[in-house]
Amino acid sequence: MAPLAEALSAAARRVARVAAGHRLASAADADGEPEDEARSLRAAIADLCYSTLRRYGRSQAIVAALSHRGQSANPLIEALLWCALSALESRRYADYTVLDQAGGACGLLRLARAKGYVNALLRAFLRRGAGMESRLQADSQARWQHPLWWLERVRAEYPGDWEAVLSAGNGHPPMCLRVNLRRTTLARQQARLADAGMPTSQVGPAALLLARPVPAARLPGFAEGLVSVQDAGAQRAAAYLELHDGQRVLDACSAPGGKAAHILESAEVALTALDADPARCEDVRRTLRRLGLQAEVRGADCNALETWWDGRPYDRILADVPCTASGIVRRHPDIKWLRRATDPAAFAQRQLRILDSLWRVLAPDGRLLYVTCSVFGIENGAVVDAFVARTPGARRVPLSGGVPAQLLPDAAHDGFHFALLAKPA
Questions:
Q1: Active-site hit among 49, 83, 176, 373
Q2: Is 281 one of the annotated active-site residues of the chain?
Q3: What Å distances lie between residue 155 and 61, 160, 303, 304, CA to CA?
Q4: Which spans in 38-94 are helix H?
């Protein structure tokens, strides 16, 4: 096993960049991938980054309470302390190992002079941590691991469920599979997984929830296109679209292509898949190639109709719009700390513009499915209500099965909002 010091130093650099306002993915890109001889570090670095960001509010409070400086003058030292505290509280390492390796990380980060300070603060936590717990529990941000504005919004919108929503956001995400029912059966794929030591439970018509996550490449049938990784909540979109053979379908914000693939697995349709980021369109193409599926994939902003629309309307449109991603933060824990209180309203305005544009290319008697991976009402029901109120003839129709529009995150799926809009004939 590679020394913990190397993982701590790499994780500290990435977490420090997140604290400075950068996404974790871009921070990892800036840090670079470990060389071939150090590939064993990747899992340890990722685990430290994710666990640190999931408990970011708590670690910040601990450092602020124990540091005689109030806060370290060096952001990289701060980040190292947060990562080391996460390692201590994970109980995966002996206490003396974390202290020793945190000191080694100081050297790797060229912060050797901070070794004494880092060691003293971590020792103080080991001595006083239990006595600090009541204070930490009284600090809402430290207890719930979400920014205060986020916590208050969720508590106001879900008075009976807010604790469960926040707790879900701090947990590890489930790993769910979508079985390609055009090429195999759910029972056959479930049995194949079980034979490989991967037990599952059924959580949807084509959805199997793995008892334990595994690398996708190890999944029986993955390379052959029999199974894909897709959250059980996200799998609902294809069913809600009410697809039929022969339809023209638009996936307006398609990358990385999971919902586009599910649409093509569900019916023989002519699919156009758009994404505003041309580079991410390759993700869509890669997904479709693995599954042996065909679609027109284009890098284009769905609002700029003149750059991509051929004038022929679509029978079905999936508008999986950009949003705060507040329903999937356990998959991307940096999001909680990068979002600002003004972001939900800003996304709502952007979402309304997308609906206005896509409504123009929807055929008479067509259906448009509006989707977000958000739990904030301002970018969900409020957007749909505002659009219907200002758009002649637009109406919201019930989702199949009569299910509610808002799906809150739980042990089986992430958080999503779905709204099906009908255009008059």
A1: 373
A2: no
A3: 22, 8, 34, 38
A4: 41-54, 56-66, 75-90
Give the full edge-to-edge strand order of the sheet including 176-179. 200-204, 207-210, 176-179, 227-229
Q: Give me the half-sphere count of Cα atoms (radius 13 Å) on the Cβ side of residue 382.
A: 14
Please give the backbone phi and psi of residue 416, each rounded to the nearest 5 degrees, phi first. Answer: -140, 160
Question: In this predicted model, what pLDDT tens digit does every residue of 97-148 receive, in sequence order?
Answer: 999 999 999 999 999 999 999 999 999 999 998 899 999 999 999 999 999 9
Tens digits of residue pLDDT in 110-124? 999 999 999 999 999
Torsion of CA 350, 354, 355, 356, to 10 degrees: 100
What single-letter DSSP state applies at residue 425?
A: -
Q: What's residue 37's pLDDT?
A: 45
Are 76 and 93 within 8 A, CB to CB? Answer: no
- Residue-wise pLDDT tens digits, 143-165: 999 999 999 999 999 999 999 99
> Exposed, middle or buried, 69 (CB in 10 Å: 0-12/13-18/19+)?
exposed
Q: How far apart are CA 19 and CA 71, in angstroms?
A: 14
The closest of 125, 121, 11 to 72, measured between CA atoms, is 121
Give me the count of residues in the chain: 425
In sequence order, what are the residues at sequence separation of 6 or more whose Cβ sits closer than 8 angstroms to the Cβ of residue 113?
none
Tokens encoding 352: 């309304």
pLDDT band of residue 34 (cuts 50, 70, 90) is: low
Q: Please name the residues in contact with 127: beta carbons below 8 A apart, sequence gap of 6 or more.
A: none
Q: Which residues of 361-399 are buried (b: 16+ CB within 10 A; e: fewer)?
A: bbbeebbbbbbbbbbbbbbbebbbeebbeeeeebebeeb
| Domains parsed from the chain with CATH numbers | 4-143 (1.10.940.10), 175-230 (3.30.70.1170), 232-422 (3.40.50.150)
* HSE (side-chain half, CA atoms, 13 Å) at 43: 5
User: CB of 289 within 8 A of CB of 283?
Assistant: no
The answer to whether 364 touches 425, Cβ cutoff 8 Å, is yes
- Which residues, including other chains, have CB under 8 Å from residue 204's CB and lie 6 or more apart? 232, 235, 236
Cis peptide before 256, with omega less than 30 degrees from 0?
A: yes
Label residues 37-46 b or e (16+ Cβ within 10 Å = b). eeeebeebbb
